[in-house]
Amino acid sequence: MQIVKPNDLALAAHAIEAGELVVVPTQRWYMLCCDASNPDACARIFTTKRRPPDKSLLFVAQSPEAVRQRFHVSKEAEFLAAAFWPGDLALLLPWRDPAEGERHQAVGAPEALVTVAPGTLGELADLTAVPIAATSANVSGTEGTAPSITLEEVLNFVASTRADLPIVVDGGACPIANHLTIIRCAAGDTEIVREGVVHPRAVAAVLGWAGRDQTAAG
């Protein structure tokens, strides 16, 4: 395992393209990443994290335009993307091509959890020639550990799981230590699925939800 700084991010991109797993920092916490189109690599993430297979990974797109090419994007989703991407918001969006969704089961089908990320994770998406699947670097479940927010915690995660990681990108301590906000955006159905960094009041302001139930507005 090689520990590198963010200015050596190309090494992480090459590792992902070769089917490997890598860890990169975000403002929230460290993320375990792989090629979203590589079923074997995605399976190793689920195994390493002991993550239930029905809990999809995050699809990290390069840009809003890249999202539009793969997914149906509602008017509400467009408003949210314009306001908060790149940022700590993920949208549950239906695939344009159901067959493509089936090829990317690890990130969800018929809908996927999609983001355009800021910082190092977004830069990694730009550098990598394949789509990225990501999840927090920790063991899942009630017997698991909190998401890693320091390099030391990442190394403890690697040691405890015996994860095979050629590259870990050291970004120091992650200051926010909070979840992405998740919003489901289907035709006629927009709702906050999980609260996180992007506050419900900010979502309500963008979507004109004043006076409405912010966790179930459609």
From TrEMBL:
Catalytic activity: L-threonine + hydrogencarbonate + ATP = L-threonylcarbamoyladenylate + diphosphate + H2O
GO molecular-function terms, A-Z: ATP binding; double-stranded RNA binding; L-threonylcarbamoyladenylate synthase; tRNA binding
Compartments where located: Cytoplasm
Enzyme class: transferase
Keywords per UniProt: ATP-binding, Cytoplasm, Nucleotide-binding, Nucleotidyltransferase, Transferase, tRNA processing
Family statement drawn from the similarity comment of this UniProt entry: Belongs to the SUA5 family.
Protein name: L-threonylcarbamoyladenylate synthase
GO cellular component terms, semicolon-separated: cytoplasm
Gene3D superfamilies assigned to the protein according to its UniProt record, in alphabetical order: DHBP synthase
Domain YrdC-like stretches: 6-198
Highest taxon, organism lineage: Bacteria
